[in-house]
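Something for you to look into today, if you have time. I want to see for myself how the chain folds. Leave the record below and I will have a look.
***
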Amino acid sequence: MQTLALLIQVLKKNKIRMTTIRKALLTLLLLRAQPMSVYDFQNQLKKQGVLAHKVTLYRDIELLCKLGIMREVSFTDGFRRYELEEDHHHHAVCTACKQVFEINDPQLEKAVFSLERRTKKLHHFASLSHHLEFLGVCTRCVKRS
């Protein structure tokens, strides 16, 4: 489990200055359970009284990704989102409201790992990574319709 203090240490170790926006970004990442777009970050920061230009956010997010603190997650809906670089997991995306849900399921991971091994054996293909995304409609959107 990441903490703000650990993330700040990564910045210090790399001689990166801690700015108000960077600290606010790190705090949001720790509090959110789902990936966020640059627009999500900008809106959440604004609610906290932190004004951040999109260009500044993109630069800071790119920096945090290079440092291995964040990672970009792209979905079939075309939106790039970002989340903490932590344990591997998959996502479910609501096609109606675009909300993203993290799926942390040990049985699913075991099945995917088995599929990767089988693919390697049958096709002589060593998988470097994979992307598994479930598309559907969340309970809230089902109730609305």
In short: The domain at 1-86 is CATH 1.10.10.10 (Arc Repressor Mutant, subunit A).
